[in-house]
């Protein structure tokens, strides 16, 4: 907080951000997009640590990166166009949103350890507090709220 006294600036402690940290990136689907999205998310988590003084442990850090990987992989495989990754974070959680051009709602398959592949949404649901799929004018948005508190 900063107080002003007759035009003088007197620092009185840490200025605390009042809005969530938000950042987005656009991917065209060329090779390497998934790795770039993970790197983007990793830098976002570092900004959250620095700008919000968030305490984010390795388990939560890994959960956010895995959710980003799974949602970007789904967008890459199932849409016929570019996709957008948006991240919004506070010290308590990170919301991962992925927009793509496909209107098809992703399918979450029942748990089956014998099945090879198609475990992406199962993983996202296991790591996220909430998962929402919404239709948008040009396709859909899949949004996952990942808590940052270590259990």
Brief characterization of the structure:
This protein is of the alpha+beta class.
- Radius of gyration of CA atoms, rounded to a whole number: 18 Å
Would you identify the regions where 5 or more consecutive residues have pLDDT less than 50? none
Rough outline: globular
Number of helices: 3
Average pLDDT confidence is 87
**Main beta sheet strand tally, sense and closure:** 5 strands, antiparallel
Which structural category do the helix and sheet elements fall into? alpha+beta
Distance between the termini: 32 Å
Number of strands: 7
Give the % helix: 25-40%
Kindly estimate the percentage of residues that lie in beta strands according to DSSP: 25-35%
Strand order of the largest sheet: 3-4-5-7-6
**Helix-strand string:** EEEHHEEHEE
What can you tell me about this protein's structure?
The structure is a single chain. This protein is an alpha+beta fold and 151 residues long. The chain is 32% helix and 30% strand. It has helices at 33-52, 58-78, 120-127; strands at 2-5, 8-11, 21-27, 83-89, 93-100, 130-136, 139-147. A five-stranded antiparallel sheet has the order 3-4-5-7-6. It has a two-stranded antiparallel ribbon with strand order 1-2. Helix 1 (33-52) packs antiparallel against helix 2 (58-78). The mean pLDDT is 87.
């Amino acid at each position: 907080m900063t107080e002003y006294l007759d035009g003088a600036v007197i620092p009185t402690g840490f200025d605390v951000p009042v809005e969530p940290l938000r950042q987005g990136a656009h991917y065209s689907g060329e090779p390497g997009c998934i790795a770039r999205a993970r790197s983007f998310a990793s830098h976002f988590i570092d900004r959250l640590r620095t700008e919000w003084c968030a305490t984010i442990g390795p388990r939560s850090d890994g959960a956010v990166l895995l959710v980003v990987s799974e949602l970007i992989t789904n967008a890459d495989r199932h849409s016929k166009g570019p996709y957008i990754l948006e991240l919004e974070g506070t010290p308590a959680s990170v919301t991962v949103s992925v927009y793509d051009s496909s209107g098809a709602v992703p399918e979450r398959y029942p748990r089956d350890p014998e099945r090879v592949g198609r475990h992406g949404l199962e993983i996202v649901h296991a790591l996220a507090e909430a998962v929402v799929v919404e239709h948008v004018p040009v396709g859909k948005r899949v949004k996952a709220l990942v808590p940052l508190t270590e259990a």
